[in-house]
Amino acid sequence: MNGKGKQEIGSINEWESWEGNGEFKCMVKMPAYDNEGATISMEDVRAEPPITISTIEQELMARRKLQFKTQKSTVASRKQQAVCVRRAHKRYGTAKNPNVILDGLNMTVPKGAIYGLLGASGCGKTTLLSCIVGRRRLNSGEIWVLGGKPGSPGSGVPGPRIGYMPQEIALFGEFSIRETLIYFGWIANMPTKDVEDRIDFLITLLQLPNPTRQVKNLSGGQQRRTSLAAALIHDPELLILDEPTVGVDPVLRQSIWDHLVDITKGGKTTVIITTHYIDETKQADIIGLMRGGRFLAEESPTELIRRYQGESLEDVFLKLSVLQNLGKRRRSSILADVVERVELPAIPNPSAIDLEEAEIGEISGEFGDNVSMSSKGRVVVTPELIAPIEAMPPEEKPKRSMETYMPMKWHHMKALIWKNFLSLFRNFGALAFLLGLPVSQMIFFCLAIGHYPEGLPIAVVNYEVNSTEPLCSYDKDYCPQDPNTYEWNLTRFSCRYLDFLSKRQNNLIHYDDKAVAMEEAAKGMSRTVLVFAANFSESLQKRITDPRHSNIWTVRTSDIEAHMDETDKQVEWMLSRDLQLAFMEAAEHLATICELPTRIMSIPVHFNKPIYGLDVPNFTDFAGPGVILTIVFFLAVALTSGSMLAERNEGILERSLVSGITGTEILFSHVIVQMLIMILQSVMVLILGFLVFGLTMKGPVGWVTFLTVITGLCGMTFGFVVSCLCDTDRTATYLALGSFLPMVLLCGIIWPIEGMHMVLQWVSYVLPLTLSTESLRSMLQRGWDIARPSVYSGFISTTVWIAIYLTTSILLLKFKKG
Ligand SMILES: Nc1ncnc2c1ncn2[C@@H]1O[C@H](COP(=O)(O)OP(=O)(O)OP(=O)(O)O)[C@@H](O)[C@H]1O
């Protein structure tokens, strides 16, 4: 072999990862070839010893002869196959940067056959299978499965006619083996008794451990076998098994294959199986060797070995791969290179392959490709081809019962609801979290938000008295007005004022000097500095009783000079309110002592009893409705999107959909189960908020509870959308977080909508929590009932959002396929 030849062998080393019986097979004997001429010398191949056909293989050959006949490919004949794929094109990625997986692939799986789908890792086997089971769509081409197009009404595909074992385990870790099999049995509408019988049989067949063992505690191989049992439980017409024998010991592998051979004997069950153990497929009826988006060959194993003069199936595959590497894209030309040097048997009945050119590309008996190649002038036939052609039996039309058209099937709902309850209660940590979180959030909210800040440090510089304490002494019961002359002699009013201020804010700090007090305040030692002039009371008296003779100095010295730290709006607002109210209270108290009407000293704006709400409005009551709804909404988002994503990422969702469950059923089963959790969450939040922490509740309790629950339902449906849109937990987290923050900011929860920018006000009104928050607020604080527009608009808005989210998720589940 020359240097270039070595280079070529390097190029086929990608096949080194091809496993045979779990071992690397890079040492397979390759025919010598000349890279320059891109031809292959079959000298070595011809020198190979003749293939010995075992008794089993002879039996299989005999069966194949009886079962599978060659015929013309018409729509009718395609429908009679178990699976028929024609001109399948499938690509991932964008149109500009496509990753072509299936490139005009044809595949024919006759009923009653075991079809071994072989190909290197990443060649597209799983993609092809998921197109067959209707979970991915081809970009072009057609697929017939059991006489119908996957996904068409009445085809039964996806549905119980198929048993699908995906590559990943796709089982619920918390379930026992028995529960897992009951779930899949129920989905297939099997009576529980039949499921139990079948479980016993499968446990023995697949040597599964005690059926009460939880799936998560099984070994990898045991989990795969449980997954296989789930595909076999309902004895489907078409079994699609994606690498069922990985991690299975050789003895058990053989018994699995024996079982497959056994169930296909009657011709009622068809099996498509992918495996990396090429050798085990010698028991298959047909092997499809996939590479580069199409089949290198689609033949019986013995025929493959015979025709390509290989030592084994692996050998054949390597030869075909090398030829394809050399640029032979079409199977006919690949085969030509081989058969030019291989002696062919005589053809006793050439008319059997006399087919129209137009049909050549899709000739389809069980060995359609042989015919295709033969029509290219290469007389390549298999012994099976020579068998007389018999008409296929008329096809049974799929029955379309009323049930076909029902959006939800009872047995599906039974299985799903049971499964959802079981997984919820098995996951105690998650359940405790789901119930504990809203409770803790509500406690935190009620204890932390909306309360009056107390103990704010206030620096006092009082030049009116000579005191070392902020609170100076004064005669509390002394009226400074002469009862006879009505002359005033106001003294130490600063002390009276500070006394009343200390009842509101009791952290007064004395300073002798204003400059020092200001310096300390600048260092953050106090939130405000109050300065009283030396003649404060005297000036104040003059300002009130003799304004005509008051000058600017009188006004200035009668002011309480306040220097505020305005960095915190809430604190500044509450402190300035305290400073003013303390003054009013001190003056009113003085009026009382002097037997004057108290209100004479008040600011002449009188606040009567409020129309709605409390005399002293509190922020907790304002924010409460929004916070309650936000907690309920986003917990439901987390709960639903979390469980749906977990189900999807573990492959369980895919598997359930292939078994015939619809997106609508999955969503509604989650709604039913999670609704229970949500009602519990809502009730706990309401009890805590209103009974324990005393938030204002004037409205109808029933409507309040109902609005809270449907807001949770709305969050749940939003969670469905998130889980349908996002492929990973990370993107789901981003989307959930990305919607949480704007919702909190824009739904009028922490700031009145009227204070927002005009455009944002409009945005705010279409968000799901805005109208419902306003509605809840109106019910709780105003006591309004459902007849009020601002109340019922919240219910309408929430219901509309539920409908939008639910429809979106059903559509996404239905149409978002690869
Ligand atoms: N959803 C997807 N998006 C983009 N590319 C994908 C997607 N699914 C599969 N692929 C790519 O398509 C190719 C075929 O993948 P597929 O899983 O069908 O291969 P396979 O033959 O089943 O491999 P294996 O034997 O390792 O399971 C791979 O290159 C894979 O990376």
Automatic annotation (TrEMBL):
Keywords: ATP-binding, Membrane, Nucleotide-binding, Transmembrane, Transmembrane helix
CDD domains per record: ABC_DR_subfamily_A
Domain ABC transporter stretches: 83-317
ABC transmembrane type-2 domain ranges (all copies): 587-816
Recorded GO MF terms: ABC-type transporter activity; ATP binding; ATP hydrolysis activity
A Pfam family that the UniProt record links to this protein: ABC2_membrane_3
GO cellular component terms given for this protein: membrane
Transmembrane segments: 622-646, 667-695, 701-722, 734-753, 791-813
Organism domain of life: Eukaryota
Membrane topology field: Multi-pass membrane protein
Record localization: Membrane
Name of the protein described by the UniProt record: ABC transporter G family member 20
Organism of derivation: Arctia plantaginis (Wood tiger moth)
